[in-house]
Amino acid sequence: MLSIQYIRDHLTEVNQGLKKRDQSFENELNEILLLDSQKRKIQTQLNQLQADVNSSSDLIARLFKNNETQKAQELIKKNADLKDRIKDLKNQFQQKQKKIDHLLVQIPNVPHNEVPFGKNEEDNVEIFRHGEIPFLNLTALPHWDIVEKNDFIQFENGAKLTEKGFPVYVSKMARLQRALINFFIDSNTGAGYKEYAVPLLVNEQSAFGTGQLPDKDQQMYHIQEDKMYLIPTSEVPLTNLYRNAYLKESDLPIKMTSYTPCFRREAGSYGSDVRGLNRLHQFDKVEIVRIEKPQNSSSALQEMIDHVKKLLELLELPYRILKLCGTDLGFAASITFDFEVYSAAQKKWLEVSSVSNFESFQANRLKLRYRDQENNRHFLHTLNGSALALPRILACMIENFQATSCIHIPKAIRDYTGFDVIEFSP
Fold this sequence. Notes:
By secondary structure, the protein is an alpha+beta fold.
């Protein structure tokens, strides 16, 4: 969430930056500043009236002490009127604050200067590419044909148990999934990220703190009776561990990682985009989250990008990195880099990771601050990234590493799987 002070000090910059999202919030921003100005005037009146009441109370005590009862009673009546006025002004103050809060939570983060303009995902900018695109023979199959025919992944049974988008992994495919999770977690902890096992349900305050509410309310599974949400990613509980926190410089940086299932109601478009493992309602993901001093968040973002690159290279998968344009940027993000792996059988790129810097946007919602050596208070910067999301990684491994009757396992995870190949019937 943007702070009113930041909006006031950088109004032109905020308006110009938000245009990268192909949206205008000029009216809302102006209304926020007007309401804030009115609120501050009310606060000035309240301070003066409260000072008058306090002064009168002292005088009333002295008048009673001097037996000047009539004057004291007149002042008591005057104080009662002042207190009624104070009550009325407090109500006005609260109403204006309520309107400000309502407007503020609807305004997305301001895109970073490096974020390109664009109308849609076609305007995202490729900044890096690694690996050779594999050329498969004409009999190569998309992953859904391989896994369904060989009972590696049961989509129909998943739909029977729950609904579409909740697959069941079987035998070696279940073990490959577990191997990837362990490989990612071990790689992350080896890079200095502390491992956490976090709840899969969060309350409304947590979903608000990282920007899922109110923006993504319709995309989250909601347990209405208990007012809880199934997490869309472990970013939400990990970051909220530090909600309402004051940290010391010596506590920083904070680097966290966690494996969780993730839940998303919105399954996207139709056709091959959602076939098989391409888009699910429940999927496994290993996340990395960082909390940094503002001056260090850009270098931290680059470290996270380099870390994800290393993971994909160890998995021997061809990938590219896209810098997202303003209209494709998430609500809370200042800048985001998407990693896409090439699916040889589907002949297209599939997103497997997003690495984002939220700068102080989430920290303002979370009230996550630190004190510097001079005891000055500052909002921290939060960052997160997938390291990595499993379904499309799994899909690309099945497709890219398929031979005539087996799927080869990359060397980096053979110690985790305990096997080198997964045999299948074409």
